[in-house]
Design a protein that fits this description.
This protein is an all-alpha fold. It is built from three helices and no strands. The longest helix has 16 residues. It is flat and about 40 Å long.
């Protein structure tokens, strides 16, 4: 498994399985925030950044609220 792979939940071919980078970043943020008691703003999260970069307009509006 590689974090740079583009395969997502595949069952066919050479690469089986998946690696979800978004989930990795979210879990790392949660762990860091809990360990260091860091109060992360929503606008500083990887989920917010990913939505603003790749999401549709309705998702972007929902995140900004």
């Amino acid at each position: 498994m590689s974090p740079l792979t583009n395969h997502r939940n595949t069952k066919k071919g050479i690469a089986k399985g998946a690696f979800d980078r978004n989930n990795l970043f979210q879990e790392l943020e949660k762990g860091f925030d809990k360990l260091f008691k860091y109060d992360r703003l929503v606008s500083d999260s990887s989920g917010y950044y990913n939505t603003m970069k790749n999401g549709c307009i309705t998702e972007e509006i929902k995140m900004q609220e």
